[in-house]
Specification:
The structure is a single chain. The protein is of the alpha/beta class. It is built from twelve helices and nine strands. 45% of the residues lie in helices and 13% in strands. A nine-stranded parallel sheet has the order 6-5-4-3-2-1-9-7-8. It is globular, with a radius of gyration of 19 Å. The two termini are 22 Å apart.
């Protein structure tokens, strides 16, 4: 197996811990750790877990616990959140959780923050408890969270563990708001192009143009996330990706479910409107055999000038997920050899 080139643009992994049809969360979480270990062996830089709630096909609702599960089973790769949906939580509780993770696993822990609830509105109300809390308070909550880590003298409330620990904070987004905030605060920025592609280029441009150096980061640092499915042939990759496409369609129908098995007749399962929606949502997805995927990845990296790339491999078959990461790592290394 390859360990990656030191000159390569770093590649990382976003995992939603998919619960597939015929299985339960127990298997999904075992698959997450298995895939994380595989990614580590291939030289991926970081492995992030996403927070979603009330979703039958996603097992990572208790995000901090899943991060601990992955960090305990790996050795060198960074592990973190992609992201914690901060409006759902007290900043103090998140500082304590990630302070605990950093105390257990050292400097390997990342804290990516989003301002969406990661759930429908009814579930969001159940999560927040405080109905005054919302995405509008996000900038204030980020500052409060930073204060718990910095713990200036005389601060009445301290995060223990957490105070004095250096846990890198990232801002995540799918709109222009987080791009502007990340630029203003001098924080690294990750854009969710795997499900919200429309504002990608505009958001990256705004972030870079308005970036203000900070004690955390001197220059802008961009990590877009896209769906990447690489298989031994274009046909096989399209087949494997059909599970994710079906999942998007089910979500649009208001019928979220466990991740379905791939289908070769995917075009016949979706209405014309659903096919158009899926194609638009996955417009930046890199799906294909090694040559096709390599061409698409090179084009995307040129288009975005990404400092790092995060890949989402949301597939039904665990062996196909592992194979996709293996082939993607080989493409990463071939890109590095071209530089």
């Amino acid at each position: 197996m390859t360990g990656g080139s030191s000159d390569a643009i770093p590649f990382s992994v976003l995992d939603l811990s998919p619960i597939v049809e015929g299985a339960e969360a127990t298997q999904a979480l075992a698959n997450t750790l298995d895939l994380a270990r595989h990614a580590e062996s291939l030289g991926y830089r970081r492995y992030w877990i996403a927070e979603h709630h009330n979703m039958p096909g996603i097992a990572s609702a208790a995000t901090s616990i899943v991060i601990a599960h992955v960090a305990a089973g790996t050795r060198t790769m960074r592990v973190g959140s992609g992201g914690i949906m901060l409006p759902n939580h007290s900043p103090l509780v998140i500082a304590e959780q990630f302070g605990t993770l950093a105390s257990l696993y050292g400097e390997r822990i990342d804290l990516g923050l989003g301002r969406a609830p990661g759930a429908d509105q009814i579930t969001a109300r159940a999560l927040r408890r405080d109905l005054m809390s919302s995405g509008d308070a996000f900038p204030r909550d980020v500052v409060e969270l930073q204060m718990y880590f910095e713990s200036p003298p005389g601060q009445a409330i301290r995060a223990i563990p957490g105070a004095g620990l250096k846990v890198p904070i990232w801002l995540l987004g799918s709109s222009l708001f987080s791009a502007q905030l990340a630029a203003m605060m001098g924080l690294p920025f990750s854009f969710a192009a795997h499900f919200a592609p429309d504002l990608l280029l505009q958001a990256l441009s705004i972030y870079r143009e308005r970036f203000e150096p900070s004690r955390f980061l001197q220059r802008p640092y961009v990590m877009p996330c896209i769906s990447v499915v690489v298989a031994d042939s274009d046909e096989e990759a399209r087949y494997q990706a059909s599970s994710h496409q079906q999942s998007f369609a089910q979500l649009r129908r208001g019928q979220p479910s466990k991740l379905p098995p791939p289908r070769r007749d995917i075009d016949h399962l979706l209405s014309p409107e659903e096919r158009a929606m899926v194609e638009h949502t996955m417009r930046y997805a890199c799906i294909g055999g090694p040559d096709t995927a390599a061409k698409k990845l090179r084009e995307f990296l040129r288009l975005t000038r990404a400092d790092e790339l995060m890949v989402n491999v949301h597939l039904f078959d665990q062996a196909a997920r592992r194979r996709s990461l293996t082939l993607t790592a080989a493409i990463r290394d071939s890109i590095a050899s071209d530089q």
